[in-house]
Amino acid sequence: MAAAAAAAAVGGPQPPQPELPAPGLSLDKAATAAHLKAALSRPDNRAGAEELQALLERVLSAERPLTAAADGEEAAAAGGGGGPGAAEEEALEWCKCLLAGGGGYDEFCAAVRAYDPAALCGLVWTANFVAYRCRTCGISPCMSLCAECFHQGDHTGHDFNMFRSQAGGACDCGDSNVMRESGFCKRHQIKSSSNIPCVPKDLLMMSEFVLPRFIFCLIQYLREGYNEPAADVPSEKDLNKVLQLLEPQISFLEDLTKMGGAMRSVLTQVLTNQQNYKDLTSGLGENACAKKSHEKYLIALKSSGLTYPEDKLVYGVQEPSAGTSTLAVQGFAGAAGTFGQLDSSDEEDQDGSQGLGKRKRVKLSGSTKDQSIMDVLKHKSFLEELLFWTIKYEFPQKMVTFLLNMLPDQEYKVAFTKTFVQHYAFIMKTLKKSHESDTMSNRIVHISVQLFSNEELARQVTEECQLLDIMVTVLLYMMESCLIKSELQDEENSLHVVVNCGEALLKNNTYWPLVSDFINILSHQSVAKRFLEDHGLLVTWMNFVSFFQGMNLNKRELNEHVEFESQTYYAAFAAELEACAQPMWGLLSHCKVRETQEYTRNVVRYCLEALQDWFDAINFVDEPAPNQVTFHLPLHRYYAMFLSKAVKCQELDLDSVLPDQEMLMKLMIHPLQIQASLAEIHSNMWVRNGLQIKGQAMTYVQSHFCNSMIDPDIYLLQVCASRLDPDYFISSVFERFKVVDLLTMASQHQNTVLDAEHERSMLEGALTFLVILLSLRLHLGMSDDEILRAEMVAQLCMNDRTHSSLLDLIPENPNPKSGIIPGSYSFESVLSAVADFKAPVFEPGGSMQQGMYTPKAEVWDQEFDPVMVILRTVYRRDVQSAMDRYTAFLKQSGKFPGNPWPPYKKRTPLHPSYKGLMRLLHCKTLHIVLFTLLYKILMDHQNLSEHVLCMVLYLIELGLENSAEEESDEEASVCGPERCHDSWFPGSNLVSNMRHFINYVRVRVPETAPEVKRDSLASTSSDSLSSLQNSGTAQVFSLVAERRKKFQEIINRSSSEANQVVRPKTSSKWSAPGSAPQLTTAILEIKESILSLLIKLHHKLSGKQNSYYPPWLDDIEILIQPEIPKYNHGDGITAVERILLKAALQSRMNKRIIEEICRKVTPPVPPKKITAAEKKTLDKEERRQKARERQQKLLAEFASRQKSFMETAMDVDSPENDIPMEITTAEPQVSEAVYDCVICGQSGPSSEDRPTGLVVLLQASSVLGQCRDNIEPKKLPITEEEQIYPWDTYAAVHDVRLSLLQRYFKDSSCLLAVSIGWEGGVYVQTCGHTLHIDCHKSYMESLRNDQVLQGFSVDKGEFTCPLCRQFANSVLPCYPGSNVESNLWQRPSNKSIQDLIKEVEELQGRPGAFPSETNLSKEMESVMKDIKNTTQKKYRDYSKTPGSPDNDFLFMYSVARTNLELELIHRGGNLCSGGASTAGKRSCLNQLFHVLALHMRLYSIDSEYNPWRKLTQLVEEVNSQQGNEEQQPEVPILYHDVTSLLLIQILMMPQPLRKDHFTCIVKVLFTLLYTQALVALSVKCNEEDRSAWKHMGALKKNTCDAEKSYEVLLSFVISELSKGKLYHEEGTQECAMVSPIAWSPESMEKYLQDFCLPFLRITSLLQHHLFGEDLPSCQEEEEFSVLSSCLGLLPTFYQTEHPFISASCLDWPVPAFDIISQWCFEINSFTERHAEQGKALLIQESRWKLPHLLQLPENYNTIFQYYHRKTCSVCTKVPKDPAVCLVCGTFVCLKGLCCKQQSYCECVLHSQNCGAGTGIFLLINASVIIIIRGHRFCLWGSVYLDAHGEEDRDLRRGKPLYICKERYKVLEQQWISHTFDHINKRWGPHYNGL
Fold first, then answer.
1. What pLDDT, in 10s, does the model give residues 1061-1091?
2. Which of 1624, 1643, 1638, 1630 is nearest to 1585 (CA)?
3. Cβ neighbours for 43, distance < 8 A, ≥ 6 positions apart
4. Mean pLDDT value of segment 742-771
5. What is the reported pLDDT for 375?
6. What residue spans of 481-596 are helical by DSSP H?
7. Percent of residues, the chain, with pLDDT higher than 90
8. DSSP per residue over 1162-1196, as a string?
9. Residue 566 has pLDDT above 60, yes or no
10. With 60 as the cut, is the pLDDT of residue 754 above it?
11. Which one of 416, 1042, 1218, 1488 is CB 3.0 to 4.6 Å from 1211, fit for a cystine?
12. Per-residue DSSP letters for 1409-1447?
């Protein structure tokens, strides 16, 4: 025992424990544990077991109830002062100790892990985890892998994607039931169980004893903490409190599961062992506390059965005769007894008091099975009770994870699945009551998807636990709680009930988890087979489906607009799709072969029964109720889809599964009603119902719904049409569409059911519907590949599409087994066959395009199918878009120049079962309609459109294409007493009817109609008229009467008791007698046939008489070889020609008649024909034509104006190649510049009192600071090792330099020796437009009062340029005077350089008084204020004394520097391109200089300190050292930044500046710069080089141009500096600085030139802006010489033959050696004390690389994997929205409150620190880039695209993404050119919250 204790002590000291209340247990835990373990290992271990039991009793007793624990003080009393959680912690420690048997717990864990046969991964994750799914490897569509397993497996070339888990999941790696073994990762490939040794018995022995007690203790706590809520609403607070307290216990269990297989099998034993459970839960007699918790448990159990006390419905059974006692009522009488609610009989049903009591009761299949579903639960093991509490507590995440972590254990998996099924009804009840149903749903699915995706398991549970019965019953019960009476058809007496879509259950999709499980199990063949074979189940299921039949009924509002637009339709469509359609597709996927015929027969049979019940329940006879429509007919759709499948795949005979004619007539009514309502909705007849009705019409045809909704509906109508009498069907269609009254030959009519303005669109709707019905072949014979191709072509014709939107738009079977698209491989092959890929394009300023697919030319030529397009368009504009694209194609390919009509497309042959459909085309009713419409179009009756004609011709053509093979003039059918419409046409074949002439027609017309008058005044001899009337040959046509008659016939045929069925219809529906003018009968003389009408139509369309000439008269070939390409595309004329040709082909008679008609040349039109009215219309036409021409002209003029404006103004977007836009005219003799104000439109000069200004945008910029001296590009860090440090940036180097200077020199002098603005410099840019400043002020006022939400803040002075709409925030006043300085200033003077130097000094010395208070000077002040406020204070104040004037001085000339340097960068870093670059033309530098100079001259520099003196005069060396000791010295002139000096000198001069003064300043400064270069060179080389050069130069010192020889000067510099300590201390540090290369004269010359070039570039730019001189272009190697000669540094007589020497540009104002030695003296006196720093300050890097953004990796996944789990350095959490800065690589939390500082979130803060207000961030989780600019932000887009050239915002598709270099370049270009504000249009305020 002692030994054991010692061993335990070695195992690691235990943390100190609070003492236990029981006195005997203050023993050392480890020792006790070891002792017990030893005791238990003995063969006779009863004593040990008892001892352990006693110990556990004490440690784990539930004596300390949670109620106390929740309540502080009592707990302290009870728990021995340990605080509430102390006892629990103590208990856990004991458990750990006991499990380890005295050893260390960690070692124990490791030991157990060694025995883990890890064949499965099983990693469980929760929502938002990033996982992978590979469709190539998956067997189940729900298969998922964790990132680690995915990356370790080989999935190259597979169809995989990354996704964010919504509900949580588990990794399936290693599970061959769910995925193919080839996809397993390296860790799980080896089936390792064989070589894992057996687990030694004693290792887990303790666990087997301890764990049952531990789990029982947990269950006690759960029982204890649960209180049956009073009002059936569990208070979440209490539940959460209990769960928080139990957190450590559950986590402990979770850790156990992670120890691997060995521990899991122990846990499984514990959880499933029924004996253990019984022993522990039954022995409760003496313990009061345990008793109490047991009672609570019993109460909780009571409500677990399906019989709710609160339910209004009583589930009785009406037909006991059915044999089985269907819902064993007695079964739940026991449960019900507790509530005294239910009686075991169903008397309530009789009295009908319960509105719903009357409907047929739900029949559940067997009696025995359902018993268990209805009953209260009984628990037999820990697992069952644990799951029960898990559900009761609404699935706490920890519990779910624990239960799922156990799943790799096979035995557990089966047990758990059965338990889950057993609790299924209880889950549903809890879910319905839950407040957090979303969270709960996700957790339920998280569990169930792991169980039911496995086919083997699903099959086992189905067989052993009646899984299917349970699921269907539970779904049924769930829906029954929200039923309402259906108001469809017969509102009062309807017995049908439907779900109420407004209920939370449907609105919030609460049913989703249950339905999703059901779909999941139906995807397994073995399960689906059982379902389809079980008749009882099918009946129940059809019952369930009928709840949705007719839900969400819409009633048309006729009077006022509906007050409240309900949005319940979303819920309705979602419910039908998820609860009805998806299970249907699941079942259909198993009915693919002949052998499954039986299943189809079953479904069809019960479906028809349910439909018949439905028709009875809603009291349906033959007419649908008017003005109401429901889009939900799932029963019809089930029926249709199974019919389609039967014919297509199972070779079933269609007629064997069709009902009788009467049923078919009923079946067709509602789908037809939907089609008519669609037309009504699009005709705006439902406009008073609000927008939602349009939403329904769109959703019905939308890609995710269409193949479960509109497609089955149309197919069902096609089936009905193929079996019903065609005349009946056609007349029904026109009646449903309410256009019957329109179909009359008379020119006027009355429509009693439709307003005139809707007639046209309704007629178009009816004809279009017929065309779709007759030409759609989706279910009538097309193969799957043909369907896919047709769908794809239709979508591509509407618009070019991206790959992902195509995938989304093409309807797939929403059957979960089908993966993405039925066979996504065929998707790719079809796509490549019909479309070309257009790679993404980039216009530098345009929107970013994505990769698009566009139809190939041959697709437009042969496959464009307008019918399919109309069927699939959600928005009507898409049809137009498709036609426009088709027109463009025809124009482009030269096939047809005009406006084409939709082409006629050949169809796939019909499947023989549906041949009857074509009878519609050959029925007299249709022919009369076509004839009438052709006649009306020809006579120009009102309300007919080209679209109507187009559809009429389409139908005629369809009829010709589908005519019977042999044309017989005698009809085979028996002539009845009075055959339908015999008087019109002899037969029913269209081919023969086309040539039949119709002479007279009798019509009913209003008395006001022209026909009536004409008749009465007819000059026809009265006898002919009377003879006509007597003969009775005039045709009468009444659709409605016909339809009634047909209906009667059909009914009589099908049933003898027709009289009871057909209610006598009053005619009132069709004509309200008193309302309209009286109708009278008139007889029209027609004398036309369809053929003659077509020919006349041809004349009418072509606008010429006799335009039609039969083509076969010239070319007889045409009749033999009819397919002529010239007829394929064209307009109406072509269509008519094509039809006539086809008619001629089909029958010789027709050919002859056509020729005859054409021979009767229409006589010339007699003049009397033109009536006054017609003349009026002709005049109107002419006038219109003229007006149109005028308009055209105006438009053209306007367009050209606009174009020229666009060319000048809108070149913001492309910083490279814009067309220059002069601010003024550039003739030099103009004395004053003239500006145009873009607001008031006046031109004039800028004056003191009415100044003009330039529209400018001021922004702070840190782009310059991002230049680097390293050629290696910076990469974005993607591993922990890579870090980015900003040491080598320009900004950093400048900061170091300034702080060094400030350490050793006088502050005011330091601030003149450098420039700032590398970070946070102010950049000024303009669009080049000018405005009066007073106009601008009033413009701003109007913007301020404008309440429109702008993307900018007017209060901050922001606005858009009134002309070009470019973003701006200030106005820069233009200085009066000329813009191009007049010649006077530019003439070279002959003064010597000495004189000029004096002048410069004098001019600088004059104090610049601020001009008098004019408007101009005020504006200058205010713009200066704007410039200062543009950047933050920290970027302005560098002085040690805050607010010193030197600060402002430094800031002002630095603004000039920033703008010049940035322009240089925009030009690519050098001036080789020359010319006036874009920026030059739209530059505002000139104006900016005036403003700056005006302010700079207010600070006169003390002439003592003016650097100009030091540059141009030799100072006597008196008192240079004295008096300086106590105060810091000035900065030596050689440490000054020469470019800064240049700007100071120029801005101190009075403006405008003279050219010769400018040149003088440049010459003087160049001497200083050159000396600096020599000094730097001398410091860079080593001692030997220095001495060699010193001697070499000294020899030449006395030659004539010694001052212009670099060798001499260099040797002088070296000798001067050697006097000081600069070259001493050649110590270790020196080696770093010395460059190892040997210096040749060439390399030295190159070094000197490179050193001087930056200065020359800036100076040349400055000269170009101040004096308007163009920059010369040159080669890179000659840039130095060209610039120096352009600046006037080179003497004009200089020849450039021999190699160019930079020293020849020198022009010393005073003897060179004297001034150099003076300068060197300053350095020497400094290096006396600080040699190191002195050297560092001399060496300046001259070659800076252009700024770039970080280089990004090729594949986005590398970024994502590193950053999405990376913790933030500030708050050390993993951010919810991580982002990374693309300028410097900093990792930030977007919107993270954790890193907020003074109300600024981290991204905004970083954008201020890193980019002075501009930030470019890559959002890791979304792959998009967001730009922050000041107080606004915008989404820029993504630089990562997938293989199809598309962005994947938010990584929704999760396909691999690759960098798009062009896009990244565009982003970088916009960053460098500061054009984010101009190019990106969608900005919004971020309120510092990013």
1. 333 333 323 333 333 446 677 788 888 888 8
2. 1638
3. none
4. 88
5. 67
6. 504-507, 512-522, 525-533, 535-546, 568-575, 582-588
7. 27
8. PPPPPGGG--HHHHHHHHHHHHHHHHHHHHHHHHH
9. yes
10. yes
11. 1218
12. PPPPS-HHHHHHHHHHHHHHHHS-GGGT---SSTT-HHH
Bond into 1373 cis (ω within 30): no
| Cα distances (Å, whole numbers) of residue 1065 to 1041, 1044, 1070 | 11, 9, 10
State the Cα–Cα distance between residues 624 and 669, nearest whole angstrom.
7
CA distances from 1709 to 178, 1598, 1604, 1692 (A): 89, 19, 13, 18
* CA angle, residues 1393, 1394, 1397, in degrees to nearest 5: 85
Rounded-to-integer distance, Cα 131 and Cα 1750, Å: 28
Q: How far apart are CA 635 and CA 581, in angstroms?
A: 10
**If you average pLDDT over residues 688-700, what whole number do you get?**
93
* 1732 touches 1625 (CB < 8 A): yes
Q: Over the Cα atoms of the chain, what is R_g?
A: 46
Q: Which residues contact 461 (CB under 8 A, 6 or more apart)?
A: 417, 418, 421, 451, 467
What type of residue sits at position 1888? N
The percentage of the chain sitting over the pLDDT mark of 70, rounded to a whole number, equals 77
Q: Which range has highest mean pLDDT (304-308, 629-633, 1416-1420)?
A: 629-633
- SS3 call for 187: helix
Tokens 């256009």 correspond to 739
3 state DSSP class of 1433: helix
1451: β partners:
none
How far apart CA 1135 and CA 279 sit, in angstroms, is 89
Residue predicted with more confidence, 341 or 1323: 1323
Instruction: Please state the length of the chain.
Output: 1890
In the prediction, which pLDDT does 1518 show? Answer: 40
CA 1131: distance to chain centroid?
40
Query: How far apart, in whole angstroms, are the C-alpha atoms of residue 1256 and residue 982?
Result: 83
> Can you read off the two tokens belonging to residue 129?
């985890």
Question: Residue 1854 and residue 1847: Cα distance in Å, rounded?
Answer: 11
The answer, yes or no, to whether residue 1559 has pLDDT greater than 80, is yes
Task: Go through 1268-1290 and write b for each residue having 16 or more CB atoms within 10 A of its CB, e for each that does not.
Answer: beeeeebebbeeeeeeeebebbb
Q: Which two tokens stand for residue 1439?
A: 């002085």
Q: What is the pLDDT of residue 1012?
A: 53
Residue 651 has pLDDT above 60, yes or no: yes
Q: Which residue has the tokens 């020119």?
A: 747
pLDDT digit string, tens, across residues 1617-1638: 888 777 765 443 444 444 555 6
Q: How far is CA 119 from the centre of its chain?
A: 39
- Quote the DSSP letter at residue 1127: G
Closest CA to 842 of 1879, 1718, 1890: 1879
Eight-class DSSP state of 576: I
Distances (CA, A) of 688 to 453, 557, 628, 632, 693: 47, 6, 13, 21, 9
Q: Which residue has the tokens 């040690």?
A: 1440
Q: Is 1530 buried (19+), middle (13-18) or exposed (0-12) by CB count in 10 A?
A: buried
Q: Are 676 and 1070 in contact (CB under 8 A)?
A: no
The H or E element that residue 627 is part of is none
Cα–Cα distance, 1597 to 1593 (Å, whole number): 6
Within 8 A by CB and 6+ apart from 980, the residues are 727, 924, 925, 1042, 1045, 1046
DSSP lists the bridge partners of residue 1817 as: 1781, 1826
Give the bridge partners for 484, in sequence order. 498
Provide the mean pLDDT of the chain: 78
CB 1870 within 8 A of CB 1861: no
Q: Is the pLDDT of residue 336 over 60?
A: no
CB neighbours of 1279 closer than 8 A, spacing ≥ 6? 1762
Give the SS3 label for residue 129. Answer: coil
Take residue 744 and report the two structure tokens written for it. Answer: 């009359």
Residue that has been written with the tokens 């919004």 in this structure: 1884
| Cα first-last separation, the chain | 64
Residue 698 above 90 pLDDT?
yes
